[in-house]
Amino acid sequence: MSLRYTFGGDEFLFVEISEAMSLESFFKGMAITRRLAAANLDGIIEICPANASYQIRFNPDIISAETLLATLQGFETELANAPMRMDTRLIEIPVFYNDPWTNETGARFRERHQDPTSTDLAYAARINGYAGIDEFIAAHSGSPWFVSMVGFVAGLPFMFQMVEQERQIEVPKYLRPRTDTPKHTVGHGGCFACIYSVRGAGGYQMFGVTPAPIFNPAQEQGYLKDSMVLFRPGDIVRFKPISRAEYDTALDAVAAGTFNLNIRPVSFDLAQFLHNPSAYNRQLLGDAA
């Protein structure tokens, strides 16, 4: 895996790890960017890891482009054979699947969809080979997801399903984007899941909604007290199906300021996961039960 370094103007260095997303590429990017952050070098303004790449913004008056490039290439060599382990967080996200709001939104924009006679959930279940919506929801919520990057709009996480590639859920985006998507919609496009942090335009298929605020500049939830953005690259997410009654109760708790999420620290070992993803996931999620 040979990394490609490209400068963007005087202040940016973009590093492409691979042309396709994979957990190996993601881990390599995370390892190098975490190593850079730990080095605490003067002149580094922003470190932005992504799915299979990362970008650094720097001040060329403090650290030269040549010095930064040499530093990153040194980290690449240093970490080439290092064990791919990560201390991170397991976050349980409640989801009201097949909810009335995303279904109503999908109906309003049906002429922009591949299957105007279906719903997003029914379409996704059918093209991924599931017998129906319930079986699809069980697959969607039955495995963990890696947060591979956060962005596009503030607080929006992109998540990569932690299963064998042939089992990954894949759906195309809408043929033409919607001009509306409910806030906190759990969506999916390509192989990536997401949660819309705010209401707005979108093109991902819509599967449900979560009552959990994931971006709040006022930081009113206890789990957002350290950052207005919940997710970080490297977080592991588990979706938990909830009923309409549980969703309404959670919304009341959000309004009262008493809502909380189940978040706990975990360690993740990529080699052990790749050896047997299903067994590793059972252990990972079972530990959280």
Q: Unreliable segments (pLDDT under 50, ≥5 consecutive)?
A: none
Query: Approximately how much beta-strand content do the residues carry?
Result: 25-35%
Largest sheet: 7 strands, mixed, barrel
Order of helices and strands: EEHEEHEHHHEEEEEEHEHH
Q: Roughly what percent helix?
A: 25-40%
Question: Averaging pLDDT over every residue, what do you get?
Answer: 94
Query: Helix- and strand-based class?
Result: alpha+beta
How many extended strands?
A: 12
Task: Tell me, briefly, the overall form.
Answer: globular
Please give the alpha-carbon distance between the first and last residues: 37 Å
What Rg, in angstroms, do the CA atoms define?
Answer: 20 Å
The total count of helices amounts to 8
Largest sheet, spatial ordering of strands: 5-10-8-9-7-6-11
Protein name: Allophanate hydrolase subunit 1
GO molecular function, one term: hydrolase activity
InterPro entries: CT_C_D, Cyclophilin-like_dom_sf, PxpB
Keywords: ATP-binding, Hydrolase, Nucleotide-binding
Description of the molecule:
The strands form two sheets. The chain has a seven-stranded mixed beta barrel with strand order 5-10-8-9-7-6-11, surrounded by five helices. Strands 1-2-4-3 form a four-stranded antiparallel sheet, covered by helices on one side. The model has no long low-confidence stretch (mean pLDDT 94). The protein is built from eight helices and twelve strands. 34% of the residues are buried. With 289 residues, it is an alpha+beta fold. It has helices at residues 23-39, 65-78, 100-108, 120-127, 133-142, 244-256, 270-275, 277-288, and strands spanning 4-8, 12-16, 44-49, 53-58, 85-97, 145-150, 157-161, 185-189, 192-195, 205-209, 236-241, 262-269.
